[in-house]
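Q: For a teaching handout, I want to show students what a protein-ligand complex looks like in token form. Below are the inputs, and the small molecule is calcium ion. Please produce the holo structure.
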Amino acid sequence: MKILLVEDDPTLGDAVMVALRQAGFAADWARDGVQADHALADFSYDAVLLDLGLPRLEGLDVLRRLRKRGATLPVMILTARDSVEDRVRGLDAGADDYLLKPFALDEMLARLRALLRRAHGVADAEIRVGRLCFDSVKRQARIDNAPLALSAREIEVLEILLNHADRVTAKEAIADRLAGWDEGVGENAVEVYIHRLRRKLEGSGVSIRTLRGLGYVLELAR
Ligand code: CA
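A: Here is the structure, written as tokens, with calcium ion included.
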């Protein structure tokens, strides 16, 4: 699952990005309203964390434009304690929830998971291949009922492969998805994540096959 954070405060933005990634979410960070508007028009996200007071284009306008395009993805507004009116206007403009600043990062993650769960439903949030089951909201993989210990990056790679199970995923597509706006993830790094995932999936009945020059396929082991 990929989240867009829209926040112009660098300190808060940094903290939220770290928390999102540690929790296993892919995330992009837009630092003003215009950047957010472009990102939402051009890329696909599963949820938005949206500050209201933003340079260049206000958060509420970003939200209105998003809903006008017919996008239904969940939006959580991040707003200061004293602006009751803003919160009401935010909900009126199509926000699904709001979080009062300052907030605890754990609470933000819990509320985000609840939003994603509501948007996708429990059945939808679970991807199964053989004995491997991945909960895309909790960001957890299990083999039978035993949780797999995966790093945040490994979780992202596994999710990408699971979403294309039995089909080829290009290495560049994985690198693109992993790359935030500020950091490049090389294709060599992708190979490392695949190598680690393979080892952790050993004996699970699920394997990741390399198709030279094309990419990877996650499938039931033969
Ligand atoms: Ca702000």
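A: Two things your students might notice: DSSP finds eight helices and eleven strands in the chain. The chain has two domains: 2-119, 126-220.
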